[in-house]
Design goal:
2 copies of one chain form a homodimer. Helix content of chain A is 14%, strand content 41%. Chain A has 3 helices and 9 strands, in the order E-E-E-E-H-E-H-E-E-E-E-H.
C-alpha cells in the first residue's frame, strides 16, 4: 500500500472561519466539498483540537473563503500554522463579518460562502460539519488555488493536524 | 446569493467502483476527500439512485481510480451518463479486480485506492460513505484531472444526479 496515492486526490484551498459571540477565528482547510445540490449543502472536515472547531460547535455556522492561486505563502501561513488561542489571527487582515457572524476574507480570495450546520459527523480526530449554504458570492474570476499548486509550485507544507497530512516518503 | 460560487470549490475526478457478489459497477464522482490521516480514511458522496450506491451498501467496500488529465470525454462519459442497470459499463474496459472485489481502472488513470466502509451518513439525496483505506497505489505521475479542467477545457458536463450539479446561469 502506498499512501502517497492519497496525494492524488484533488482539492481547493479555503479559509474556514467561525465565531463565538464577538470572538472570531479562521483556519486553512483543503477538505471542503459540495454534498447535495437540493438544498445546496457543503461539508468541511475540521480537526477537533482547533479553535475553529470549538467555534463552529458553539455557533453552528461557518464561512469558507476560497483562496486564489496568487495568495502569498505568508498570508496562508498566518491562518494555518498557529492557533487562534495564542494569537488574534484576524488582526491586520481585511475581512468583513458575514450574515452568519463569521469572518469573510477579501484579500487573495475569489469567492466565499456561509453555511448553517445541519449535521455533524464524528470521524475520530476530525468532525465533518455539513452545512446548508445560506450565502455565497463570487468576488472575481482569478484562478483558484489548488492543493497541488500550493504543494508543488508554492512549496507549501501541511501541518500534522490536517486531514490530508501524510508523512511524505521523500 | 450566487450559487455559482460553489463552482469555485476544487475537486479531482474519480471512477468510484463497487460490487455485489460477482456483479461490478462504477461511476464518475468528483466529491472525494481525505477525512483523517490516522487511520487513513476517505469520504465519497454518492447519489442514492445510483447502482454503485446499491453495491456499496451491499458490499461495504468501494474503489476510487483517479482520472488523469488526458482521459478522453467518451471514456469518462461511458461511466457518467448512463446507469449500470441498463448496460454493463465495464464491458470492453481495462480493469482489474482489487482486494475488496471492486473494479480498479487501469487506462486514463494515475492512482487508485480501495476502502472498507466504516460509517455512512445520510445527507438527503446522497449518502457520504466514509471508508478506511485498505489499498492504495500510484500508477504513474501524469497530471490529475481536475473538475475545473474537465468543465472549462474539456467542456465536460455534469448530470443532474451529481452533488455539484447547479443549473448554470449561462
Amino acid at each position: 500500500m502506498n499512501l502517497n496515492a492519497l496525494h492524488k486526490i484533488g482539492y481547493g484551498m479555503y479559509i474556514v472561519g467561525s465565531h463565538q459571540g464577538e470572538k472570531r477565528n479562521a483556519q486553512i482547510a483543503n477538505t471542503m466539498f459540495q454534498i447535495t445540490s437540493e438544498p445546496p449543502t457543503v461539508a468541511v472536515s475540521i480537526n477537533k483540537n482547533n479553535l475553529t472547531h470549538e467555534y463552529i460547535k458553539a455557533s453552528h455556522v461557518f464561512s469558507a473563503s476560497v483562496l486564489g492561486q496568487t495568495a502569498p505563502l505568508p498570508f496562508i501561513g498566518g491562518f494555518g500554522f498557529k492557533s487562534g488561542r495564542d494569537t488574534d489571527k484576524l488582526k491586520g487582515v481585511n475581512y468583513k463579518v458575514g450574515q452568519t457572524g463569521s469572518p469573510i476574507f477579501l484579500d487573495n480570495t475569489v469567492a466565499y460562502l456561509e453555511a448553517e450546520v445541519i449535521q455533524d459527523v464524528d470521524v475520530g480526530t476530525h468532525t465533518i460539519f455539513i452545512g446548508k449554504v445560506v450565502a455565497a458570492e463570487i468576488l472575481n474570476e482569478n484562478p483558484c488555488m489548488t492543493y497541488e499548486y500550493y504543494y508543488q509550485v508554492k512549496r507549501g507544507t501541511t501541518p500534522k493536524s490536517a486531514p490530508s497530512y501524510i508523512a511524505r516518503e521523500k
